[in-house]
Structure prediction request, 517 residues.
Amino acid sequence: MLTSFLRRRGHEVELLALSQFASAKMAAQRLSSTDASLIYFHLRGSREISALMEWQELGLIQFEGKVPPFCLAGGLVATHFAQEILDRAKFLQGVVRGELEIPIAWQLDRSTETSWREGPSLVTRDERGGFQVQPPSSDSPIQLSELPAAADDLLTTSSTGTRRVLFGRGCQSACRYCGFADYFKTLSAHQSSLWRPRPARQIVDELEDLKTRYGLDSFAFQAAVFFGYDARGSRAVEELCDELIRRGLGIRFHFVSHPNHLVRNAPLLPLLQRAGLEQVILGLDGGSEEALRRFDVEFTCQQGLEALELLSQHAISVMPSFVFYDPYTSPDDIRAQLHFLEQARPYFKHEKRPYSYFLDRHLLKRALEPKPFMPLIEDLKTDGLVQPNPEAPWGSPRIRFRNTEVAAFYRAHLHIDRELLQPLRPVLWSRHWTNARPELATLPLDVLRHLAEGLGLETSDEKAALVAARELARERLEPLDPILEDLCQDHQVRVLQALAPRLVAHGSSAIASTRHP
Prediction:
């Protein structure tokens, strides 16, 4: 978006991706040879920052014999760690906080008239070795109608997969596992103005162009909050669907939503299906009310079940985003999570994959991924549950459980997962085999429930818990011997040939080294 926006304003822009280069050294050499007046680095995560640090350590960015360009960085990580990044990457002259189009265009438009240090939303070094932080522009956040279609420099006619297309921007929520809202708040003090949709006609123009020129027909609509917060968001979604149906593009798409927004917009689901909706990535975030309150999300477990039921009723595929463990997880949380997942089972009957696949792949093992910029980190620091990395403060810190019983349960869970479930994944992930033996559909959940009962969540006797879980596994798997024998004849899962004859004789521990395709 930034590239196409600057081109529309008359600037010559070259778009490069780190993945285009065999090494960070080759990328640095390419940048050092440029005649550009400004180089912008978009820091999406640790990989890009690691490249910057490597360039810094090896002195790879050199602009000898010519006027060096301004070197700026930006993005979610840069917004939260502007000073730390500037302190280490000396060749950077500033960091843009928040959305990029207005600050970078301001710099390019005025670079011959005034100091670049005065640009809106910029963090720079000052003469005394400190940092100068400029406020955002006094203008409202950029209206998305001003943004042209994203640049397609990195696409080719052989490009495949799902293309991300901007639907809307802005977040007014305060989820404590995310730092996205703070990213947008750098733009304006008026929260109510931060969420805004892109015009439907512009979106569909972009989709039609991508399908015509590159044959792409699968898209992900990008928006922090797809349905928005009120009737304006619902209207924007409805207008998008109407335009897609009118043009008959025959595309497929998905988006991310929290349960409350999906439930509020339930009447739009048939229209979304007609327009091409094939999947919703549903941010359930957990099945414990206590955990959801810790995260400060705006929905309940009941709304999570309602959202799953809606998608099931309309036969819309769901990809659940779930957090089973977080540093504050309690024994009661574990019981609540297991109960929630028992209740959720009927709402996955329409899926091509069995429920055991979702349990094993997306639900049971999911732990909160710590991000150094998420608001919850401050609580974790206060409670001594996080160990930041002073050398790379933007990296994911190490965290631990507050409850020792839960820590023991988690270790036992991972052990059983490696020993039992991992070798069985070709079976557990196949509807063919779970239809043959319906009890397999909840095997991961049953094993974990049995593990919880064995551990009792009252003791740290992990050995006893593991023995109890193995016994359950043995009881469940012994009758499967004939099925597994048949399965081993299937050329698509030849890797299981060693599984069946050893399963009954040695128990689940004998198949720990078996790998699935």
Summary: Confidence is low (pLDDT under 50) at residues 487-517.
